[in-house]
Fold:
Amino acid sequence: MSALLMAAALVLGVVHAGENTADDTPRLRVLSWGGAYEAAQTQALFEPFTEATGIPVSVDAYAGGLQALREATHGDGPPWDVIDMTMSDARAACAQGLLQSLDAQLLDPAPDGTAPRQDFFEGAFTECAIAHTVFATVVAYDRTAFPGNRPTSIKHLFDIEGFPGPRALQRTPAANLEWALLSYNVPLEELYGLLSTERGLSLALRRLDSLGEAIHWWEGAEEPVQLLADGEVVMASGFNGRFFDAIVNQGAPIDILWDGQIQEFETWVIPNGADNPHLAREFIRFATRTDRLVEFARHLPYGPVRRSAAEQVTTHKPTGIDMRLHVPTHPLNAHRAVRKDETWYAQVHARINERFRDWLEGRGETNDGG
Structure:
């Protein structure tokens, strides 16, 4: 009887483990962004983590937002242990009770012993999220489309006459609203105050309306790069690292317009109901070590959030290109950068998204994003 009970317990243990491997070794399940971003994470984070711990990593891709997490939470529980999430989405998800709390004390100090709270940039820690990199949403353009007259200002995104052709924009209010107001010469420090008013929202949506049928909406992070590379659009919003990958590794005739870049923290979070939260914390500690952040920045030009790592950014590992000139935080690139107000977005998330959906419906379009 004792042997039978032990056998039953073992069977139940394997069933409960769900995604664990056949020999009952736990598997870290990650939700990330796919494409070049996931490839860089695999080389800098996932494979080294497996080598160091023996824990295999499986990765699913998503396009951001909270919809996938909400649906998983209301179903059988999230099939991921850790999620790579923008800070604004992480704040909103935390406020909705979708995430576990995280403490900076779980992190390793800098190589010289500096404590994490002194080594990480200000704002890198919230109740439910720990930032790992600074990325930028930027506008890029096909340099063959405008010979002799290239875009130099975010205003040119809305200048259909001077720079004709379709634009690919993400189907979300974020970045689009800020750029629309910047095109009216609204000062950087007044953007979110104005967007908090009906007048500001109306002005921004009116500017987006001025693009008429020139807007091609995208949702997957690889779409704008492909649309530009294929010549289907002349300008596209997207993530600076994806455009860098297309320029350097694919030889695409793309240039980045840094004016008006929207900087934001990318974070690690643990969903409520995760099967392996302790393993997730072990991974977050590993992935936010100084050496791992430096290594990741050698594959994609996203700025490390640790001072000890930021000062060590050097060259692109495959080509030797100086990565310091391509990270969003470099002074030459950050001259007119907008630091995304993640607290504002978390507070107005539902209202702004509803207003954006209504605007899309008024144009005869729909928006099913989260």
Summary: Residues 25 and 151 are 53 Å apart (CA to CA).
